[in-house]
Specification:
The protein has 266 residues and is an alpha+beta fold. The chain is built from five helices and 14 strands. It folds into two domains: 145 residues, 3-Layer(aba) Sandwich (Trna Endonuclease, Chain: A, domain 1); 65 residues, no CATH class.
């Protein structure tokens, strides 16, 4: 006798599609296509905006805007400094710097000069005056557009000065998408090259050390020669040349009577 086995739990049918063929698993639907193209979100177009539409004047509109904490942070992010505004229209010699900041990490001064136009020689001269008036400073030159000559000038200043002085050049742009709000963008066009500066300083150090070594060798040679000439050969150093110098040629006298004397120059 065959007993009928009744399961303790009701049988649950898996989620398959009923079909005469082997069962198929149900998968999520694929992305919808229209024709041959998959649907994409609607994208806007970036539009560059004239700076004067946001700031009519450098001193009365742009500088106050940049000096606000939320805006100076944007500039600081572009150059890698944590900036805190200390003063506006700060007097430095005969000129007045637009914004004077402190780098909160190092405590160094950061001086910002603004131009809502192409860079010119007048502002470059002011930057040099600012650097001369402060012992150590980071100078930021902000303009609508940098000429190649002024960019090269900042690169040159970064090469020839030590790490107490650093120069940044940035171009500012305004962009928007459709009817969105305008957004500023800072583009760095010149900055300190720490690797290049360290190589230059090392090269100067090698040249200085080489000069010192050569001078030391000269001094030792001429000092020994003076002792030899006076002791072994009976020559007398002229009165004005008693001190041995690193780069000096001795004049010796030979002969007792004035008329019999002759000079040897080395």
């Amino acid at each position: 006798m065959i007993e009928q086995i009744v399961p303790s739990q009701p049988f649950i049918q898996p989620s398959f599609i009923r079909h005469s063929k082997p069962p198929l698993l149900i998968f999520p639907l694929k992305p919808a296509f229209h024709g041959d193209f998959m649907t994409t979100p609607s994208l806007g177009r970036l539009e560059k905006v004239n700076l004067r539409k946001a700031w009519e004047n450098e001193s009365t509109s742009f500088t106050p805007w940049l000096a606000q904490p939320e805006n100076i942070v944007l500039l600081g992010e572009a150059i890698g400094l944590d900036l805190e505004v200390e003063a506006k229209e700060q007097a430095v010699g005969p000129f007045r710097a637009d914004i004077l900041c402190k780098d909160t990490e190092s405590g160094a001064w950061v001086l910002i000069e603004n131009q809502l136009e192409k860079t010119d020689h007048t502002h470059l001269g002011q930057l040099m005056t600012y650097a001369a008036g402060l012992d150590a400073v980071t100078i930021v030159w902000l303009a609508e557009r940098f000429t190649e000559e002024h960019r090269a000038a900042l690169d040159w200043l970064n090469r020839i000065t030590d790490d107490k002085f650093t120069f940044f050049g940035l171009e500012i742009e305004l962009w928007k998408i459709g009817e969105s709000s305008m957004a500023p963008k800072f583009n760095v066009v010149s900055k300190p090259n720490d690797w290049s500066r360290s190589v230059t300083e090392a090269a100067h150090g090698l040249l200085s050390n080489a000069d010192t070594y050569i001078q030391k060798m000269h001094l030792e040679y001429w000092s020994a020669f003076k002792i030899y000439a006076e002791g072994a050969r009976g020559l007398k150093v002229q009165e004005t040349d008693h001190t041995a110098l690193a780069e000096h040629f001795y004049r010796f006298l030979q002969g007792g009577a004035k008329r019999n004397r002759f000079h040897l120059g080395f």
